Amino acid sequence: MPSGNDSRFAIAVLAAGKGTRLKSKLPKVVHQIGGRPLLGHVIVAAAKVVAPKHIFCIIGHEADLVRKTVEAYGTGFVEQHEQRGTGHALLQCREALAKYTHVLVLSGDVPLIRTETISAVRDFHIGHHADMTILTAQPPDPFGYGRIVRRTKDGHATDEVEAIVEQKQLKGDQLNIREINSGIYAFNVKELFARLDRLTTNNPHGEFYLTDIVSIFHKDGRKVLAVEAEESNEVLGINTRRELAILDDMLRTRKTSELMDSGVTIYRPETVVIDADVTVGADTILEPFVQLLGRTSIGSDCRVRSYSVVTDSRIGDKVTIKHGCILEDAEVGNSAILGPYSHLRPASQIGEGAHVGNFVETKKTRLGKGSKANHLTYLGDSDIGEGVNIGAGTITCNYDGVNKHVTVIEDGVFIGSDSTLVAPVKIGKGAYVAASSCITRDVPPDALGITRPELVIKENWATAKRAKMKAAKKP
Ligand code: UD1
Ligand code: CA
Description:
The protein is α/β, with parallel strands linked by helices.
């Protein structure tokens, strides 16, 4: 069998089209499902079959945006300046593919395709010495897809394909054909490019249909075979927003199923939204309506409670995220406890066993091991040591209207409630800040910082006040 890195094998991904039916200003293949662009899904699956440098994305409509969206995957690009059909798109790859023996053609708008299926098409194609192999399927509703006309022998359908007929061109009995063209093919490169020039625009859209190559191959006596996908969902294409939502749902279900199979408990998985690149450790529990997005990783034995949204964050083991927390680009150490309703903004670093409580917001802040900020607090641009207690209502005043400044709070500090720390400022190791203080200068280690006015007690003041008001009351 051919190896996964067979350099004679290339993959071309058709992604130059506009996607008119989405009615969008963005090109179709950059729309996302499962938290990843459509084209990204296809590339990720393809990149496990051949190295990215052997993958060529054919781009055209909004080419720069498409290129930028998937650049990081490291594939090659070929431009189709005018979108004149799928056959014309592949024709642009003549040079890029010259050194390869075979090419697999995938569609940028068929995103559920799995690596196993791509490899199966490749292996079938090589194993059967075909000139062209077509991946087909029998979805419940074949409407809109090109249909497969198989060659019959003694009244039975064979592996061989005579033609692909597009929906609009179906005639008579062809309307009953349930087997569809997935838009995924393998070709012998030499035989393909020897014939691509023979495509015409003689069809309702006036485009060069790649699908017409089948009858050309057939006429020349070349071997065109069909191989049916095990699961028809995998080759569903996206042309409309409704299909976008349906395939997004399928991907989310695939993701939660994989996680459950790997030891994650998910209650009411149909309510949970988890992006494709997210990882979750075993024995972690996800409650209903949790969202784990982007490049988030969650460790083992954690609990993420309902309505929390975690984006691009790294969460350790045994962490509890209570209800309604919002995390973005945050790092959370083992056994930390967050929430309910904590807001961790970018570059928040919460230490092992630390607590961040309700209505506490952090940004570009390190909260050391075992430190606590449990209530109603803003910590921005702060470096906070270990074993620190941040009282309710503490505010770091990090912004002077022009620049941001840093607050340093060393190990073991106690900040009394309702204090404001005007940065740049440093509270030394083991120091205290009295409740309701406004700290504008550094507090040395083990000192007390206090800005509280003297408390005045006026005995029986309230009694006298009430009597006075009663006497003054109008009848
Ligand atoms: C195509 C097939 C159809 C098949 C279906 C599967 C043709 C003529 N028809 O139809 O048999 O059942 O896919 O999903 O091929 N593209 C380009 N350049 C172009 C035109 C299209 O790169 O000039 C790209 C698109 O971006 C898209 C892919 O090719 O990713 C398929 O094009 P689309 O217009 O969606 O073809 P379908 O009508 O779905
Ligand atoms: Ca399509």
